[in-house]
Amino acid sequence: LNLLDNATVLPASEEHTKTIIFLHGLVTQAKVLLEPSCSIPNIKVVLPNAPLRAVTLNGGAKMRAWYDIKSLNPAVAVQTEDTAGIKQSAAALQALLDHECKIVGAENVVLGGFSQGAAMSVYVGLRYPQQLAGIVALSGYTLAVDEYPDCIHPDNSTTPVFAYHGANDPMVPVAWAHKSWDILRKHGVKVDYECEQRLGHSVSQIELQKVVKFWNFVLDLQAPTS
Question: What gap in Å lies between CA 169 and CA 166, rounded to an integer?
């Protein structure tokens, strides 16, 4: 599975020195979420598409998904994770990271995503054997919680993670997000987590501004501002 084959790529308008890889959720197009914010001249943005697969939660309908989801109940979801699907997508994402890191260096690559894409970004990013600039998780959660902390690669044990969630999210309950990021913090991962009141399972303008601020900081594009 070569994710570059059907990815949307927003090329750098000047010399390509940084890369942002952003993964869509189950039905959300990453391009719609990020394109208005991706105007930094030296950054290439890669928006890969997951393979088509049957999703149990949606009656077995085929759609682009990083892995199958059987339930929105966190307790059930954790017990019924699609381990095979997760590992298949993780291998493809690692290959994509390898490709981009060879071009600009791992320290100049940010990996992020929304919902399922956020979960995959954390799963792959913390296991990756080269230190990335940062990881972004919007409306996401942690997969394979029983594998922590052993699964964290030493090179990414200090990689900053920016997590953001809507307090009114009906798809990924905010309590699930709280627990997910607490687990990572417990094991020493640097998670900057924010929760926005009245936000559902979507991305707000305030959130996008914070995401841009985060990647500006970790990619050393400008000094952080308060």
Answer: 5
Give the residue numbers annotated as catalytic, written as ranges: 115, 169, 201
d(CA 71, CA 48): 25
Q: Which distant-in-sequence residues (6+ apart) come within 8 Å of 105 by Cβ?
A: none
Rounded to 10 degrees, the C-alpha dihedral 215/203/4/11 comes to -50
Q: Is 47 helix (H, G, I), strand (E, B) or coil?
A: strand
End-to-end, the C-alpha distance of the chain in Å comes to 42
Write down how long the chain is. Answer: 226
Query: Cα-Cα-Cα-Cα dihedral of 158, 216, 180, 87, to 10°?
Result: -80
Q: Which residue has the tokens 């590992």?
A: 87
Instruction: Give 40-67 pLDDT, tens digit per residue.
Output: 788 999 999 999 999 999 999 999 999 9
